[in-house]
Specification:
The chain is of the alpha+beta class and 424 residues long. Among the domains are: 2-97, 3-Layer(aba) Sandwich (Rossmann fold), CATH 3.40.50; 123-191, Dna Ligase, domain 1. Helix content is 29%, strand content 28%. It is built from 13 helices and 23 strands. It has helices at 10-19, 35-40, 51-60, 72-75, 78-83, 98-105, 107-116, 132-141, 165-176, 245-265, 299-305, 310-318, 394-405; strands at 2-7, 27-32, 42-43, 65-68, 93-96, 124-128, 146-150, 159-162, 187-191, 197-205, 210-212, 217-218, 221-223, 227-230, 235-238, 270-281, 284-291, 333-341, 364-367, 370-373, 376-379, 383-391, 413-414. Strands 1, 2, 3, 4, 5, 10, 11, 16 and 17 form a nine-stranded mixed sheet that branches. Strands 12, 15, 18, 19, 22 and 23 form a six-stranded antiparallel sheet that branches. The chain has a four-stranded antiparallel sheet with strand order 6-9-7-8, sandwiched between helices. Strand 10 and strand 11 (210-212) form a beta hairpin. Helix 1 runs parallel beside helix 11, helix 6 (98-105) packs across helix 7 (107-116) and helix 8 runs antiparallel to helix 9 (165-176). The model has no long low-confidence stretch (mean pLDDT 96). The structure holds adenosine monophosphate (AMP) and glycine (GLY). It comes from Flavobacterium buctense.
């Protein structure tokens, strides 16, 4: 098979790495990819949301399958674009339909879906600029902290958690009236605060059947001890040590199964990943968000643990035969540590040469924001590399990642030294 993978981050490098282990994958293109994907596959300089160019490319190269990494093309409707075009509707797209992608594209859509299908989630209401006063009144009925969520995609920045009522009202007005997050905040979901520990659950579904992939926990804050600004994720651990059989059973029966059944009942086509963000409140899992893609850096720990042939799994997804394949998981722990550019998630520079990668031993270096310049690998983003290792437990795996990170260098390199600090 010839496969086209869309995206350019650490997630895509990890997906590419895993797909290339399949004997079925003869050729892999990544659009646009990064330096890491260029070493193992063929990068193509096409934007993942330039559907017309993607169509020309898949026809020219006889692509057999398109795998979508990030949410943007999904929310823009790449699945439907292929489905509705006779020239390319025979090519499966791994990802949900445009309606399905609304689970991530609209917080309100996701909340309505959760309530409709009786899936445990925080109480909420949603507001627009016309109902901003009602929103302020609603805030008064809640206990702090207050959770405000921009309805649309806001590059992971659209959730505000505020302790002060007056500040929450001001921010609600900023979002609704002053377009703090552009059109993404023309609607805002206000949600009850859930106090508990976070966990992410990953599902691969063909719209009828599903497979639960390994759990993972990521570390979103830039600073040690989970302090400072939110980032895309500074590290991840899989499996999550506290996700025992009892909790996983609850997650499956109360959340995963009703989600897939709900998609089917609502006639929503969905052939791809579902990333379910959970908060465990006193042992009970509650959904805080859906994403319609894999997480980054969670993919960098989840994919290496999947022993089954990923391309075969994708084919089963495309043919709605996921019930006919098995999913084998490596029982060892995997951890990844993100190495970022100093200044991230605020301003940072790009173009620093990365050295030392050839000395890395017994870890996998997934590239995130990197590119090749005159034969050298240079930084090209805030999150630069994800260093993944295996161990018999997560402590052993983390130690290995840190030992290898010590061999890497670029100007203003930063990473958190406490990934996994809160786990037993
Ligand atoms: P989201 O973009 O929906 O993942 O939200 C970003 C972060 O906000 C999550 O990872 C949680 O840490 C936090 N969060 C979201 N919703 C809630 C909630 N209802 N209660 C507590 N924390 C939340
Ligand atoms: N690491 C969180 C995300 O991918 O959304």
């Amino acid at each position: 098979m010839t496969i086209l993978l869309l995206g350019s981050g650490g997630r895509e490098h990890a997906l590419a790495y895993k797909m290339l282990k399949s004997p079925t994958c003869n050729q892999l293109f990544v659009a646009p990819g990064n330096a890491g994907t260029s070493f193992i596959a063929t990068n193509v300089s096409i934007s993942p949301i330039d559907f017309d160019s993607i169509k020309d490319f898949v026809l020219k190269e006889n692509i057999d399958m398109v795998v979508v990494g990030p949410e943007d093309p999904l929310v823009h409707g790449i699945y439907d674009f292929f489905k509705n075009d006779k020239a390319i509707n025979h090519i499966p797209v791994i990802g949900p339909s445009k309606v399905g992608a609304q689970l991530e594209g609209s917080k309100e859509f996701a909340k309505e879906f959760l309530i409709k299908h009786k899936i445990p989630t925080a109480a909420y209401d949603s507001f627009t600029s016309e109902s901003v006063e009602r929103g302020c009144n609603f805030l008064e009925t809640l206990q702090p902290p207050y959770v405000l969520k921009a309805d649309g995609l806001a590059a992971g920045k659209g959730v505000l958690i505020l302790n002060d009522l007056a500040e929450a009202k001001t921010e609600l007005r900023n979002m609704l009236v002053h377009a703090k997050f552009g059109t993404a905040s023309s609607k805002v979901v206000i949600e009850e605060f859930l106090d508990g520990i976070e966990l992410s659950c990953f599902v691969l579904t063909d719209g009828k059947n599903y497979k639960m992939l390994p759990t993972a926990k990521d570390y979103k804050r830039i600073g040690e001890g989970d302090t400072g600004l939110n980032t895309g994720g500074m590290g991840a651990v899989s499996p999550v040590p506290f996700a025992d059989e009892v909790l996983l059973e609850k997650i499956e029966t109360r959340i995963v199964k009703p989600t897939v059944d709900g998609l089917q009942k609502d006639g929503i086509e969905y052939k791809g990943f579902i990333f379910i963000g959970l908060i465990i409140v006193k042992g009970e899992p509650m959904v805080i968000e859906y994403n319609v893609r894999m997480g980054d850096p969670e993919t960098e720990v989840v994919m290496p643990r999947i022993q089954s042939d990923l391309v075969e799994l994708f084919q089963a997804v495309a043919n709605q035969k996921l019930d006919e394949v098995t999913l084998e998981i490596d029982p060892r722990s995997a951890t990844t540590i993100m190495v970022v550019s100093g200044g991230y998630p605020e301003d940072y520079n790009k173009g620093f040469e990365i050295t030392g990668m050839e000395y890395v031993d017994d870890s996998i270096v997934f590239h995130a924001g990197t590119k090749l310049e005159n034969g050298k690998v240079v930084t090209n983003g805030g999150r630069v590399l994800a260093v993944t290792s295996f161990g018999n437990n997560f402590q052993e795996a983390i130690k290995k990642s840190y030992q290898n990170i010590d061999k890497l260098h670029f100007d203003k390199m930063y990473f958190r030294k406490d990934i996994g600090f809160d786990l037993a």
